[in-house]
Write a structure and sequence with these properties.
- The chain starts with 7 loop residues before the first strand and ends with a helix.
- It has 2 domains: 77 residues, Elongation Factor Tu (Ef-tu), domain 3 (Beta Barrel), CATH 2.40.30; 91 residues, Elongation Factor Tu (Ef-tu), domain 3 (Beta Barrel), CATH 2.40.30.
- Helix content is 12%, strand content 42%.
- The protein has a 6-stranded antiparallel β-barrel. It has a 6-stranded antiparallel β-sheet with strand order 10-9-12-7-8-11.
- The chain is mainly beta.
- It is globular, with a radius of gyration of 16 Å.
């Protein structure tokens, strides 16, 4: 389980495809603290560390993950948001993030607002996901609050710290992002729909 508070960013330095799986080699400043079998959120996707070599560690994404997330678009030089799993004795600073991406969305607008940024996103509502005004959402693993919540779109405000310390500073209009909708909202929606 994660909180959506990004710990650091990593750089993809190797991409190797093997059958329907893709192996990623990533370098970051926390590599010396990692261990094999550890769960780490990569742009909001929970992946397991499979190997560590010097300052580089490896994770593998399977076909299902590649189909439901933006990880299949990663290439050498891509920057990913990273968060290690939540400590059970720490503060819960974001919201409950499972690291299981529900679907992708598209960045539709970026507007600078005197030192902060407003990002607009659209997603396919036919997949049964929804946002609510002032509700939580994880975008590329970052815990954020929605506003202007509509059936297939929403906006978020990004403060300078988040902008600089995540891959939000590299997002462009038209880019694909990973979306994990609020787990509590998903349970409530399922209870109301009865399926």
């Amino acid at each position: 389980m994660f909180t959506g508070i990004i710990e650091t960013i990593g750089k993809v330095v190797d991409v190797n495809r093997e059958g329907e799986n893709t192996h990623y080699g990533i370098v970051c400043d926390i590599t010396p603290e990692l261990k094999v079998d550890q769960s780490i959120s990569h742009n909001g996707v929970c992946l397991t560390v499979t190997k560590i070599e010097d300052n580089k560690y490896w994770v593998t994404a399977i076909k299902e993950t590649l189909n439901k997330s933006n990880l299949g678009k990663l290439k050498q030089g891509s920057i990913v948001n990273l968060e290690r799993s939540m400590l059970n004795n720490g503060r819960f600073d974001g919201h409950i993030v499972q690291g299981h991406v529900d679907q992708t969305g598209i960045c539709k607008s970026i507007k600078e607002e005197n030192g902060s940024w407003l990002f607009g996103f659209e997603y396919d509502p036919t997949q049964g996901n929804l946002t609510v005004e002032k509700g939580s959402i994880a975008i590329n693993g970052v815990s954020l609050t929605c506003f202007n919540s509509e059936e297939s779109s929403f906006r978020v405000a990004i403060i300078p710290y988040t902008y600089e310390h995540t891959n939000f500073h590299q997002l462009k209009v038209g880019d694909t992002v990973n979306l994990e909708f609020d787990i509590i909202g998903k349970y409530v929606s399922k209870l109301i729909r009865g399926n």
